[in-house]
Write a structure and sequence with these properties.
The chain is of the alpha+beta class and 361 residues long. The protein has helices at residues 2-20, 160-163, 168-175, 216-239, 257-272, 280-287, 293-302, 306-324, 329-335, 341-352, 356-360, and strands at residues 25-29, 38-43, 53-59, 64-69, 83-88, 101-108, 112-121, 133-142, 145-152, 184-191, 201-212. The termini are far apart.
Length: 361
C-alpha cells in the first residue's frame, strides 16, 4: 500500500519538476550570449518641420537609456514623428525559432505605446533593398514604473509601412510563408507616433531583452494530467472502482482542398499577369482547375472575380513601376498586360482613385 502511495505522489511531482526546469531562454541584454552588437537611433528626417531628435544617453551593463524630443504634429500621417533605438547584431544572426515569446523590461515615468520590431535577414540573392531586411512588428502599452512586458512571437506581423514599399505580388508570395525567425539581425524599440508628446523631451530605460519558450499551456496541461492521474489512482486504491476509459475522439476534418488549388492559381497569375491575352480559360487549362471553379476560389478569399483580381495585380505592379522607374506611362501599361492606354487609365483610376499621371506626381 505504501509503495502505491509513493508512486501516486512522486510520479506527478517528477513530471512537474522536469517541465519547470526545461524552460529555455536567450538573453539579449544584459548578457554575453550575443557577443557583439551595436546600438543605433532612428528618427524621422524627411520633413525638417517635423523632425525629431533622439539619442542614447547612457549604456551600462544594466540598462540602455534613450531620450528624444519629438517634432511637430503637422506632418502627414505617414511621417509623423518616429523615434527609437536599434540593437544590431552586426555580422552575427540569432536563431529564435525555438522560442515563442519576447520579454522586454522597461522603466519610464509616463504611459506610452511602443512598437517592437524584429528585423530578419531578407531573401538570399534578392537585390531589392526593401527585401534585404524583413520587419515584423508588435505593440505593447507601457505604464509608468519598472515593468516587464511579454509579446508572443505569433502576434508579430509585417508593419504597414513595409508592406506599402513592396509590390502586391511580392507580398502575396511572402504572406504564404510562415514567419522566418532563423536569422534575426536586429531588434528595434520605438515610440508609436500617436502616443508622442511634441516638443517635450521624453525618455525611457531598457532594462532587459530576452526570448523565451513560454510553457504556460504545457505546464497547465501537465498539472491537469497529474490531477487526473492522482484522482483516478485514489479512486482505484480506496474505492476499487473500475474506471471506464473515455470514448475515442473523432478524427480531425481533412484539409481544405481549395487551399492547394488557390495556391496554384495565385502563383500562375503572379508569374503571367503581364500576358495581355490571359483569360480565365487559359489559366484553368494551365493550372488544372475548371474555369467555373476559379471565380469561386477568388471570391472566397479576396471577394473578387477573375477580371477584378487580375486588374488589381496589374495596377499594383504599375504603381510600383510609376514610383520606382522613369518609364513612360504607355510603356508601363503595356508591361503590366494592358493593350490600350485608355483601358489602363480607366482601370488604374477605378482601383487607385487617381490617374497614372496624378499618381506619379
Amino acid at each position: 500500500m505504501l509503495k502505491k502511495i509513493i508512486i501516486i505522489i512522486y510520479v506527478p511531482l517528477i513530471l512537474i519538476i522536469s517541465v519547470l526546469f526545461s524552460s529555455k531562454e536567450l538573453v539579449i541584454f544584459p548578457s554575453a550570449e550575443v557577443k557583439r552588437f551595436r546600438i543605433f537611433t532612428y528618427t524621422d528626417s524627411i520633413y525638417t518641420s517635423s523632425a525629431s531628435f533622439g539619442s542614447v544617453s547612457g549604456v551600462s551593463d544594466k540598462s540602455i537609456v534613450f531620450e528624444y524630443t519629438a517634432g511637430s504634429s503637422n506632418a502627414p500621417l505617414a511621417v509623423r514623428p518616429v523615434n527609437g533605438i536599434e540593437i544590431n547584431f552586426e555580422t552575427d544572426t540569432v536563431d529564435i525559432r525555438k522560442y515563442n515569446q519576447i520579454d522586454i523590461g522597461i522603466t519610464c515615468s509616463k504611459s506610452f505605446v511602443t512598437n517592437i520590431d524584429i528585423v530578419t535577414a531578407g531573401l538570399s540573392g534578392n537585390d531589392t533593398s526593401v527585401l534585404k531586411r524583413h520587419y515584423y512588428s508588435g505593440i505593447i502599452k507601457v505604464k509608468p514604473g519598472k515593468k516587464t512586458y511579454g509579446i508572443k512571437l505569433d502576434n508579430f506581423d509585417p508593419p504597414w509601412w513595409w508592406k506599402s514599399r513592396i509590390s502586391f505580388t511580392t507580398y502575396l508570395s511572402l504572406a504564404d510563408k510562415s514567419l522566418d525567425f532563423s536569422r534575426v539581425i536586429a531588434i528595434r524599440i520605438g515610440k508609436d507616433p500617436n502616443s508622442i508628446l511634441f516638443h517635450s523631451p521624453v525618455g525611457f530605460e531598457i532594462n532587459s531583452i530576452k526570448f523565451r519558450k513560454s510553457c504556460r499551456i504545457f505546464v497547465t496541461a501537465v498539472f491537469a494530467v497529474c490531477f487526473v492521474w492522482i484522482s483516478l489512482a485514489i479512486m482505484i486504491l480506496f474505492f476499487g472502482r473500475k474506471i471506464v476509459p473515455p470514448s475515442p475522439q473523432p478524427l480531425p476534418p481533412p484539409p481544405d482542398p481549395d487551399e492547394e488549388a488557390l495556391k496554384r492559381l495565385e502563383d500562375y497569375i503572379a508569374e503571367n499577369y503581364h500576358d495581355p491575352d490571359l483569360t480565365v480559360e487559359i489559366v484553368a487549362r494551365k493550372v488544372g482547375i475548371s474555369a467555373s471553379r476559379i471565380p469561386a476560389l477568388l471570391q472566397k478569399k479576396y471577394k473578387m472575380n477573375f477580371k477584378k483580381y487580375l486588374n488589381h495585380i496589374r495596377v499594383t505592379e504599375a504603381k510600383r513601376l510609376l514610383t520606382e522607374s522613369d518609364r513612360s506611362i504607355s510603356e508601363i501599361a503595356f508591361a503590366v498586360g494592358y493593350q490600350t492606354i485608355p483601358h489602363f487609365n480607366r482601370e488604374f483610376k477605378k482601383i487607385s482613385g487617381k490617374s497614372p499621371s496624378e499618381f506619379r506626381k
